[in-house]
Design a protein that fits this description.
Number of helices: 21
Structural class: alpha+beta
Largest sheet: 6 strands, mixed
Mean pLDDT: 89
Radius of gyration: 31 Å
Shape: flat
Number of domains: 4
Strand content: 15-25%
Number of strands: 17
Helix content: 25-40%
């Protein structure tokens, strides 16, 4: 049987670039969309051609190139430069120009803040042809351009400094031993390194120790819990693949179309407090926006902010609960319950009146009088200082069986002589300290902690400077002294509004089918599960390209090529 015969390579052909591009190619949609944009209004650099000097590459060609690359998983400037030479559709869109990778990279760098505006412009055009429903807000960790070796937490630095101190002491001991030996034969018999080799390793260890101490001092001075060297804005986060240096990207996905209506790139480790910022720009003042989210978004202040802005937060409830009880400050005012404007909604809620738009989800709004602790003015202004002057004094006090907090360095000394660093800040404002590695190998563990976890966690109020370790004192035959209260406070009776919010369970049950779809497509189909750029601002622009490409593919599947082309022109 014969093979299918192709064209003769030497055959002369009369054709155009347009004839090589499919009549319903996505490249034609990208070309029409970018050509219709007002680049000057979008603040694209060199949106108008200069009258003098060497001609620049058309920014429209560069923008088409990046959107096409994001859709097809071609993301680096070098691969995009290669596509300008080899890819027929790219050559058709750009007019067969071949900019080098630096020119392509500079366009993205210089116009990074305009990419999210272009994303919103694309969504506006699609909005006229579809009907949107509620949104599902969720986050996903995307790897940053920063390895774990170049990310340092306070505990990691403490461990490395301790490890290097031990090695430096060992090198110094070996050098003293070499000085006491008379011949090289004795060194060989002992299996020791030469003095020159030990001195070299000692200098390397001392240089690393000095660098790590500088990192630690910088973090303590600036109140940082971790620091990344390559990408300063990235953070170590826990994901399904373990701990990785990442960004936490939030998306608001429409329930009817599965389009990304907005996104928010953050370096916040958890999702607490990110529901309102992610959905804020989507809401239209003429209608209420319903937003669904998982339990990770359970933050009462954030949910109240949503209600004040006209967003109903359908956050999945903890087991055994049917409602959320939200407390607002009572403010007496006249309000319009029929209005859907944000300021009118906020007035009604703080006055204890349920707006008409919220009657299905807010079951009651009760005005109550409660007693609240009010801090004195001088307490808020004056910094808390430790009664112990030096680090040695604090460690000496800790060795007696107390957890002693250094408020200036934001750390805690434990009775075993280890340092506990800040782990998190709880909802009530207390700071939680822990040191997992030290607790696991602590020889005095049984004297300090007998709980179920593998490590001890200690909570300190902002005004608390020491806490007794009761198990330690009991083992030593001592009794815990009464904790000193240094804070001055008074109590006042104030009025609050207690809202009982009951989220819609039917909407919450659809969440998994909405939020995972776009992330899966972007990460796996578009090869965008990691960032190439550094810094939160640039990462936002980079994800905007992926979001435009995803919405382009999704909207074409919904509307078809012809209807999409009419919207793009």
């Amino acid at each position: 049987m014969r093979y299918v015969k192709g064209l003769d390579r030497d055959q002369v052909m009369m054709c155009s670039l347009d004839s090589f591009v499919d009549k319903e190619s996505d490249a034609r949609l990208i070309d029409a969309f970018v050509d219709s944009l007002d680049l000057e209004n979008l603040e694209i650099i060199k949106s108008c051609a200069a009258s003098e000097g060497r001609p620049a590459y058309d920014p429209r060609s560069m923008l088409k190139l990046y959107i096409y690359g994001a859709e097809h998983g071609i993301r680096s400037s070098r691969k995009l430069a290669e596509a300008c030479r080899l890819n027929v559709e790219v050559r058709w869109m750009t007019g067969a120009v071949t900019p080098d990778f630096r020119t392509i990279s500079d366009f993205r760098k210089n116009n990074i803040n305009s990419l999210k505006k272009i994303f919103h412009e694309f969504d506006k055009r699609i909005a006229s042809a579809v009907e949107f429903g509620f949104v599902s807000v969720d986050g996903s960790k995307l790897r940053a351009n920063n390895s774990k070796d170049n990310n340092f937490t306070s505990h990691k630095l403490d461990d490395r400094i301790q490890w290097l101190d031990a090695h430096i002491d060992e090198y110094l001991r070996q050098m003293d031993a070499i000085d006491s030996m008379e011949t090289a034969e004795e060194m060989e018999l002992e299996g020791m390194l030469s003095r020159e080799k030990i001195e070299q390793r000692l200098q390397e260890a001392q240089a690393r120790l000095e660098k790590y101490k500088q990192y630690r001092d910088y973090m303590e001075e600036n109140g940082l819990s971790q620091m990344s060297i390559t990408d300063a804005d990235s953070r170590l986060m826990k994901s399904k693949n373990g701990f990785q240096v990442s960004y936490n990207v939030q998306t608001a996905v429409d329930s009817e179309t599965h389009l990304i209506r907005d996104f928010n790139a953050t370096n916040q480790v958890t999702d607490h407090g990110l529901l309102a910022p992610t959905a804020a720009d989507i809401r239209n003042e003429d209608e209420i926006l319903h937003a669904v989210a998982d339990r990770g978004y359970e933050n009462h202040e954030d949910m109240i902010k949503c209600l004040e802005d006209g967003i109903i937060p359908h956050v999945i409830l903890p087991d055994g609960k049917d409602i959320y009880e939200l407390e607002l400050e009572y403010v007496e005012s006249e309000c319009d319950p029929a209005s859907t404007k944000g300021e009118d909604l906020a007035k009604c809620l703080h006055a204890g009146e349920i707006p008409d738009a919220y009657k299905d989800v807010i079951k009651s709004a009760e005005i109550k009088e409660v007693r609240r602790k009010i801090k004195e003015a001088d307490e808020e202004s004056s910094p808390i200082r430790s009664p112990y002057g030096t680090e040695e004094e604090m460690m000496a006090r800790a060795s007696e069986g107390y957890f002693v907090r250094d408020p200036e360095r934001n750390l805690v000394y434990c009775p075993a002589g280890q340092i506990l660093r800040q782990k998190c800040i709880k909802k009530n404002g207390n700071i939680r300290y822990a040191n997992k590695a030290a607790c696991r190998r602590c020889p005095f563990r049984n004297k300090c902690y007998k709980g179920k976890n593998e490590w001890k966690e200690v909570d300190f109020g902002k005004d608390t400077l020491e806490k007794p370790c009761r198990d330690w004192l009991k083992a030593e035959g001592k009794q815990a002294a009464a904790e000193k209260k240094t804070s001055k406070a008074r109590f006042e009776t104030i009025k609050i509004v207690l809202l009982k919010l009951r989220p819609d369970r039917e909407k919450m049950s659809q969440r998994l089918c909405l939020s995972e779809h776009p992330f899966g497509t972007i990460k796996h189909s578009m090869n965008a599960d990691y960032f190439l750029l550094n810094g939160l601002e640039k990462v936002t622009g980079e994800f905007a390209l992926s979001a435009i490409a995803y919405n382009l593919k999704r909207s074409r599947n919904l509307l078809g090529f012809k209807k999409m082309m009419n919207l793009m022109i």
